[in-house]
């Protein structure tokens, strides 16, 4: 039930945003579809960044543990902060690459 | 960037989104977690071993640490074993160890001092096993233990203790795969599953288990 309520909230705010955009003169539904695909690309890029960050982070932690007397828990790489940072990385870089390609293409 | 990357990123994005929906809206993580967990098997033993789960900045026990501790104390009160081992290191560089905090509460709960062993030096599960083996072997001759830890952590911990020569009776401090029903609880379950799967792989590669 809780999840249905959350999806309803997201759906309702999306409908509101769509109505607002239409009032502003944005009526191209294909543009919305294209934006959703771009968001999926950003999500995919974010997952690549997340995997990279986790693998490299784990490697660095294991090296620190073996080469020094310092202890860093491997759990550190599963921090929500790293998830958020990876998602920001994914969105920023994917949008930059897209914009750059559009500019040069 | 080429169209090829765009396609890969889009496919990954769709797969991630579908996986996310499956994880939060279906019992898939619960099924995977059930497979990963080890069923509890309570019986008479020589010692109860309660693994560490962390403290907060004020040295108080985390929820998980308290849950494990209470499970261990309950087993002792049921006279399942004459000895209880409480583990858990110091958070950061100074302060009181989790094991000390647990030990103090255990005494307040009426656990006799001579039935209590606290080990506050082990930082990882592997170190906990080595330190426990060092404390229980030899003079005390403990061979059969009731091992208390989180259900997701149990498989790795049990394999380690078995490799150290103990007969292990697992007692999970939770039933995560049954109680995780809300989206955030299922996401937490997925995270723990991922952490423990990586932990199992690492421990196998390192030859610990």
Protein model, in words:
Chain A is an all-alpha fold. Chain A has helices at residues 2-23, 29-67, 80-104. The N and C termini of chain A lie far apart (47 Å). The model of chain A has no long low-confidence stretch (mean pLDDT 90). Chain B is an alpha/beta fold. Chain B is 53% helix and 11% strand. A five-stranded parallel β-sheet of chain B has the order 3-2-1-4-5, with helices on both faces. In chain B, helix 2 runs parallel beside helix 8 (183-205), helix 5 (125-136) crosses helix 6 and helix 6 (151-163) packs parallel to helix 8 (183-205). At the A-B interface, helix 1, helix 2 and helix 3 of A face helix 1 and helix 8 of B.
Strand content of chain B: 5-15%
**Terminal Cα span of chain A:** 47 Å
Quickly give the structural class of chain B: alpha/beta
Query: Based on DSSP secondary structure assignment, what is the total number of beta strands of chain B?
Result: 5
Average pLDDT of chain B works out at: 93
Would you list the SSEs of chain B in sequence order as H and E? Answer: HHEHEHEHEHEHH
Give start-end ranges of low-pLDDT stretches of chain A: none
- Gross geometry of chain B: elongated
Distance between the termini of chain B: 44 Å
- If you compute it from the alpha carbons, what radius of gyration of chain A comes out, rounded to the nearest whole angstrom? 20 Å
- How can the largest sheet of chain B be summarized? 5 strands, parallel
Contiguous runs where pLDDT drops below 50 for at least 5 residues of chain B: none
Radius of gyration of chain B, whole Å: 19 Å
Give me the number of helical elements of chain A.
Answer: 3
How are the strands of the biggest sheet of chain B laid out side by side?
3-2-1-4-5
Main sheet: strands, sense, barrel of chain A: none
Largest interface, with counts of residues having CB < 8 Å to the other chain, equals:
A-B, 24 and 24 residues
Number of strands of chain A: 0
List the total number of helices of chain B: 8
H and E string of chain A: HHH
